[in-house]
Write a structure and sequence with these properties.
Structural class of chain A: mainly alpha
Radius of gyration of chain B: 19 Å
Order of helices and strands of chain A: HHHHHHHHEHHHHHEHHHH
Shape of chain A: globular
Strand content of chain A: under 5%
Helix content of chain A: over 70%
Number of helices of chain A: 17
Strand order of the largest sheet of chain A: 1-2
Number of helices of chain B: 11
Radius of gyration of chain A: 21 Å
Number of strands of chain A: 2
Helix content of chain B: over 70%
Structural class of chain B: mainly alpha
Strand content of chain B: under 5%
Number of strands of chain B: 4
Largest sheet of chain B: 2 strands, antiparallel
Oligomer: heterodimer
Largest interface: A-B, 60 and 54 residues
Distance between the termini of chain A: 30 Å
Chain lengths: 387, 293
């Protein structure tokens, strides 16, 4: 799609469709690399390019985790699970135009599954536990998705909001099984011998449980983003955009709107399930208070700030979710607030940012930069032809 | 049997509050096609303002009046400042803006008033009337709640039916361009609509606070969901539908609370919402088919 569009026409063409979340999702429309633009050092083949980026990111992540202290490693785990969930949500909202406020609840499904499975006498391998969490959350996502496929805009937001409020109640109802208010503590998985050896030979440092979990989180993040990036650049991604922008035209082209919407919800829910599983390991506790509406709204904040439909934007937004509150909390405590109150300042800021971004730069960080870059290139191209 | 009667009474009373809240949502939806997800947080903020006045020694009634006035101002200011730019635009943007307001206002309450629960003393006795030797779930305070909701509804009906302002508001909700051509200041009507809705939302907050007796900054979270479900039950477009939807939902949730568990009301609301949306997407009172494209 983006290969055919001239850069000059795409921002305005996007704004012309009134029923679509047009400018807000500009971040998802442009091509991911400069594949259309000629000058590029990256391979043209999408799979190769994404593999190359994956390897580079993996190397970068190892360097980051080995050169920083354990406290920072733990925070990387937090960024990872926020980013995984935000990545799934940005696919749903940015590419397919469906908003979901229920992803916090879907994360709870993944987290509780992980906590229950790891609590067994002889826990299954971690990979199996994670896959089970993903599978169960996808199933829940499919059920929600079937209902969600027929809704749009505020109706969908309200229905998923009801999910976010209602689902944690189940943990209270099945108190003996799901732990009630206190929730379940998550037993940490043993780290394998080979991991100890690898870390020793890499940096000579002594590996710890925190580091092992940080590596698991980052691995999950990279795998998820690799899969999502490929999906977004494939026929599936193009179909989702068509469903988002022009329902009737898509239907005339033989696209079954409902089926593709459910698929988007399932993919998105799978990411949320994995995020929940990682959350269970990182936080080591799954309790209803951890999965309130505020979690879902934080995820929405992350993807809107970063730019709807952009994985890079989701990652930036997730990093903000982790690091911004610390800065603000310190600022609040220096103003003589108690800790709980100071922690709330960050949510005031999230909310204000959400409103401001929607009013002044609906394409978000990545989308705005991309739009500005495309405009400039179009101007340069136009200048070249008239001269 | 006595339990059933008490649950029904309780359901009607909470249902009346849901109805008021749903009415506030419908007011805004009709004029601007926006669901105000910040309604609950706005109501909570004005309730906390009233509560801090009451705690400083003022009477409940001063608090109530201040809460309603604060709601009026808050609604108007929010409409003018942040809603006007996204009105008529992509629906996703408007949804996200109201959600941003939701999260910001709710956190602001915590920052201003603290995160702890506070006691909220009801204006009238909350001890139920006794019939024979059994206590009914009907107290002077619940009668006040019911009366206040009925008064507001009657007031709104009168406003829309019998006044020029109400006519102008209906006109601008029906067709903005036509109304503008006929000399209606549509912008003002939209601001007024938001302000009125915020007043009703504030009242719902004050009433529900007296019913639950303890309020935390998040105490309206479930009300926004229940209010939305009630509004959708009635079709989101019809004030009468919102009232009936509120009462039906209040009854249904009261039975769930009484016969199953308090923790399941959220799930029950979700199930009701999904079933209604799948079976009758236009609500129980829809007469027209939705048109697409």
């Amino acid at each position: 799609m983006s290969d055919l569009q001239t850069p000059a026409s795409s921002p305005t063409a996007g704004a012309a469709t009134s029923d679509a979340p047009s400018t807000a999702t500009a971040a998802s429309n442009a091509s991911s690399a400069q594949a259309a633009g000629g000058r590029t050092f990256l391979p043209r083949n999408t799979l190769l390019r994404h593999l190359l980026v994956l390897v580079l990111c993996a190397v970068g992540a190892v360097v980051l985790l080995e050169t920083t202290d354990l406290g920072f490693n733990a925070q990387v785990g937090y960024v990872a699970f926020y980013a995984i969930a935000a990545g799934g949500l940005t696919v749903l909202t940015g590419l397919n135009g469906q908003i979901s406020l229920g992803h916090g609840a879907l994360m709870a499904v993944g987290a509780y599954t992980t906590a229950l499975l790891l609590d067994a006498e002889e826990p299954l391998p971690l990979v199996v536990v994670f896959l089970a969490a993903v599978a169960l959350t996808s199933l829940v996502g499919a059920i929600v998705g079937v209902a969600a496929a027929r809704l749009h805009g505020p109706y969908l937001a309200g229905a998923t909001l009801a999910l976010a409020v209602g689902l944690p109640g189940l943990a209270l109802y099945y108190r003996s099984f799901l732990g009630g208010e206190q929730g379940l503590t998550v037993s940490s998985p043993d780290r394998p011998e080979w991991f100890t050896d690898v870390i020793r030979s890499l940096s000579g440092g002594s590996p710890s449980g925190v580091k092992w979990i940080a590596y698991i989180s980052v691995a999950c993040l990279l795998i998820t983003y690799f899969l999502l990036a490929n999906l977004m650049r494939s026929r599936v991604g193009r179909t989702w955009r068509a469903v988002r922008d022009q329902e009737v035209a898509a239907e005339l082209a033989g696209i079954d709107l409902g089926r593709w919407r459910v698929l988007a919800f399932v993919v998105s829910a799978a990411a949320a399930g994995l995020a929940g599983a990682v959350l269970a390991l990182v936080v080591r506790l799954t309790a209803p208070t951890g999965f309130t509406i505020v979690l879902s709204l934080s995820l929405l904040t992350a993807i809107v700030i970063g730019g709807l439909g952009s994985l890079l934007g989701a990652l930036i937004g997730a990093a903000l979710l982790v690091f911004l509150p610390r800065v603000l909390r310190d600022a609040g405590e220096s103003l003589d607030m108690d800790a709980a109150q100071a922690a709330e300042i960050s949510y005031v800021v999230y909310g204000v940012i959400l409103v401001l971004v929607m009013l002044f730069a609906p394409a978000g960080l990545v989308g705005s930069i991309r739009l500005a870059w495309m405009k400039q290139r179009a101007r340069r191209a136009a200048g070249g032809t008239t001269r | 049997m006595r339990e059933f009667i008490n649950l029904t009474l309780g359901g009607v009373i909470t249902g009346a509050v849901y109805a008021a809240f749903a009415l506030a949502l419908v007011l805004i939806w009709r004029s601007t096609r926006i669901v105000n997800f910040a309604q609950g947080a706005m109501g909570a903020l004005t309730t906390f303002i009233a509560l801090s006045l009451i705690e400083s020694g003022q009477s409940y009634w001063v608090g109530l009046v201040v809460a309603l006035l604060a709601g009026l101002v808050l609604g108007a200011v929010i409409e003018r400042l942040v809603i006007r730019p996204v009105e008529g635009g992509p629906e996703l943007n408007a949804v996200i803006v109201t959600l941003g307001l939701f999260i910001a206002i709710q956190a602001l309450i915590s920052v201003l008033f603290g995160v702890n629960q506070r006691a909220f003393v009801a204006p009238f006795s909350t001890i139920g009337f006794t019939v024979g030797d059994s206590n009914l779930a009907l107290s002077p305070n619940t009668l006040f709640t019911l009366g206040a909701v009925l008064l507001v509804m009657a007031g709104l009906v009168a406003l829309f039916r019998f006044t020029r302002v109400g006519l102008a508001m209906r006109a601008s909700a029906f067709g903005q361009e036509v109304a503008r051509l006929l000399g209606v200041r549509v912008g003002r009507m939209l601001t007024l609509g938001w302000a009125l809705a915020a007043v009703v939302g504030s009242l719902a907050g004050m009433l529900i606070a007296a019913e639950v007796t303890f309020v935390a900054p998040t105490f309206m979270d479930s009300l926004i969901v229940f209010g939305f479900v009630a509004a959708v039950l009635g079709g989101l477009d019809s004030p009468i539908g919102a009232v009936v939807g509120g009462l039906l939902l209040g009854l249904a949730l009261s039975y769930v609370r009484g016969y199953f568990s308090d923790t399941l009301t959220g799930m029950a609301a979700l199930v009701i919402l999904v079933v209604v949306l799948l079976v009758r997407p236009g609500g129980l009172f829809s007469t027209t088919q939705t048109r697409r494209a």
